[in-house]
Design a protein that fits this description.
Blueprint: H1 4-11, H2 14-26, H3 43-56, H4 85-95, H5 101-126, H6 131-142, H7 161-173, E1 180-182, E2 188-190, H8 194-209, H9 211-231, H10 236-256, H11 258-267, H12 277-282, H13 287-291, H14 300-312, H15 327-345, E3 356-358, E4 361-363, H16 365-385, H17 391-397, H18 408-428, H19 433-455, H20 459-462, H21 465-485, E5 491-495, H22 511-516, E6 521-522, H23 531-540, H24 544-554, E7 558-562, H25 570-583, E8 587-589, E9 595-599
Parallel strand pairs: 5-6, 5-7
Antiparallel strand pairs: 1-2, 3-4, 7-9, 8-9
């Protein structure tokens, strides 16, 4: 028999293991299979680019194989990834063991879910939720966004810091964090306690995990400040404590982007990320979208509802597709809002009652106080993040966080924590162990059904596996054939011309040249709106004979045509190809005939 000490340690492996099993067997994402099926396009190629550039090539945003000719810089620092420092570090560690860019992403994907499950479990236990429900909730929360294209883990999928953020704000709510104190002589002095040190550690982890969660952390810290101010009483010291910590994290956020500031000072500021304020509106989080069924739902009725809404709503665009959090999570969140309304309307709520009743469950004062805290956070997140919320004021001036619907994970966690506390109370009210066991089984079934309702069928990813495998072989063979034919370090002009990243109409298909080659040098990717990109645009506009003369004199050995649909560029592509056929010394065509190389 294992000792209680080892059993306590083994308990924390439950949620991570279950999380991996869901990934492996439900979503069919695991590192022990044919990796070619994970060769996802679009943002997948975008992520694969960064993996090769940062982790495999260890170029840290620059590359000698790209952006030729280099007229100012071949560094891609305009797209700020410094706030993804933790992810970059994990990529580097994995890259010590493998140079396969797909395997690196798949392993990273698994590790993020393990990390989220572990951290969430620890936080829920701090909220006094039972071990049973902590493990169940941590498992399903860790894979809440697994329905999304798995490459999104690079930005919004690594949300381990969100439970930690809630814990920090709860400590402020409970007056546990001391950063400065007031002496008997009424003088301020530094006196950080253990909660302060933990807040600083957790906050730093949030800041370096992703720009999205750094932003979320600062916003929710602001919620904490609002709660303290509304509570009243002697709050000056509490306000000072949270304000100082807020300032520290603002300074730290700027510090980790220092190298990027230096880059912008040297080469000039070049905003390639922000979108228009209108785009912020298109990608916002509408409250209705949270409860909408997913389009690949198990029930035909729910699928039809999703399709009808999508076809008749101008809001349901882009990443609005991923806003849904499922009926269970949405209901839990709405019950927190309802609880807040009850608190506002009720009289003498904070008396010396032994318990408080809400929807048939009897809560002790301590647990009810936690629910009150969560209900306040639920109300503030609704006012700030939902459609037309206060976030629009911030995003009017700073629209880099344009996809507000990505913050739906906040609503998911709030809903799950509510159900954890609620079901815990219902189970405890059962006096007999047999009834408690039956209750736990029923609760587990509810969570399983709720999860399936939220994510739908796993075919959202798996339906692309076969085509991904073919595309991987198509691209790999095409690039290898070019590399075997041309001399080492040959230079290739990629047409049509696109800047990188975030170019309208660009699906990152031509990144495949960089991904599969060893020594070739490409014009694309090139930093968007920098001199090399602008030069390529002007050269591509020249008459064909002049175009060939200029790129040959620049050192290019051939032209790479990407013949996938690019809005209105098909006519220009046809003209370019007809002209290249007349002068091409060697022609290499991909199996799908969408990529063509002409030696010049």
């Amino acid at each position: 028999m294992l000792s209680p000490k080892y059993l306590k340690i083994l308990y924390f492996f439950i949620a991570p293991i279950l999380s991996c099993l869901i990934l492996f067997f439900y979503f069919q994402i695991n590192p022990f299979t044919d990796l070619r099926k994970y060769y996802f396009q679009g943002d997948g190629m975008f992520v694969f680019f960064w993996i090769k550039n940062i982790a495999i090539e260890k170029s840290f945003y620059c590359s000698k194989h790209l952006a030729f000719p280099v007229l100012d810089t071949n560094c891609f620092r305009d797209f700020v990834l410094d706030h993804n420092y933790l992810q970059v570090m994990i990529y580097h560690i994995i890259a010590f063991f493998t140079k396969n860019f797909i395997l690196i992403q798949v392993i990273y994907n698994c590790l993020t879910h393990i990390f989220i499950a572990l951290i969430t479990n620890l936080v829920l236990l701090k909220f006094k939720i039972s071990k049973f429900l902590s493990a169940v909730i941590s498992t399903f929360f860790s894979v809440a966004l697994a329905k999304m294209f798995f490459a999104h883990n690079f930005t919004v999928g690594f949300y381990f810091s969100l439970p930690l953020i809630f814990l920090i704000i709860y400590w402020f709510y409970e007056k546990k964090i001391d950063f400065v104190k007031l002496s008997s002589q009424k003088k301020l002095f530094l006196s950080p306690n253990k909660y302060c040190f933990l807040t600083l550690i957790f906050g730093f982890l949030s800041i370096i995990s992703s720009a999205y969660y750094a932003y979320m952390f600062l916003v929710i810290l602001g919620f904490g400040l609002i709660m303290i101010c509304l509570r009243g009483g002697k709050i000056k010291l509490e306000i000072l404590n949270i304000s100082l910590i807020f300032i520290i994290f603002i300074l730290f956020a700027f510090f980790i982007c220092f190298e990027n500031f230096v880059f912008n000072f040297k080469y000039g500021y070049n905003d390639v990320v922000s979108r228009t304020y209108k785009a912020v509106w298109v990608f916002e989080m509408t409250f209705a979208n949270l409860i909408l069924p997913v389009e690949n739902h198990y029930l035909e009725l729910m699928r039809n509802i999703a399709k009808i809404y999508k076809n008749n709503s101008i809001i349901y665009e882009g990443e609005g597709f991923n806003c849904q959090i499922g009926i269970l999570n949405f209901t839990g969140y709405c019950l927190l809002l309802l609880l807040q309304m009850k608190i506002i309307l009720a009289k003498n709520l904070d008396n010396d009652k032994k318990y408080f009743q809400f929807f048939g469950a009897k809560f002790t004062p301590n647990r009810f106080d936690l629910l009150k805290f969560l209900s306040i956070i639920a109300l503030l997140t609704f006012l700030y993040f939902s459609s037309g919320g206060f976030y629009r004021i911030t995003h009017f001036f700073y629209s880099q966080f344009r996809a507000v619907c990505r913050f739906n994970i906040i609503f998911t966690l709030l809903g799950l924590i509510f159900w954890g506390i609620y079901f815990d109370q219902l189970i405890e009210q059962q006096k007999h162990k047999k009834k408690q066991l039956i209750s736990k089984i029923l609760v587990t079934i509810i969570f399983v059904i709720g999860y399936l309702d939220a994510v739908g069928k796993p075919d959202l990813l798996s339906k692309n596996f076969a085509s991904n495998q073919k595309l991987f072989e198509n691209d790999k063979k095409f690039v290898e054939e070019i590399e075997n034919y041309l001399p080492k370090a040959s230079k290739i002009f990629v047409y049509p011309v696109f800047g990188f990243p975030e170019a309208m109409g660009n699906d990152y298909r031509s990144v495949s040249g960089y991904l599969h080659s060893k020594d070739l040098i490409f014009s694309y990717p090139t930093p968007k709106n920098r001199k090399s990109h602008l030069w390529q645009i002007e050269v591509a506009k020249l008459e064909f004979d002049e175009f060939i003369k200029v790129i040959k004199n620049t050192g290019f050995n051939g032209v790479w045509l990407e013949k996938y649909s690019h809005n209105n560029q098909n006519q220009e592509m046809n003209i370019m190809e007809e002209n290249l056929k007349k002068i091409g010394k060697k022609v290499i065509i991909s199996n799908d005939e969408k990529l063509v190389f002409y030696e010049i």
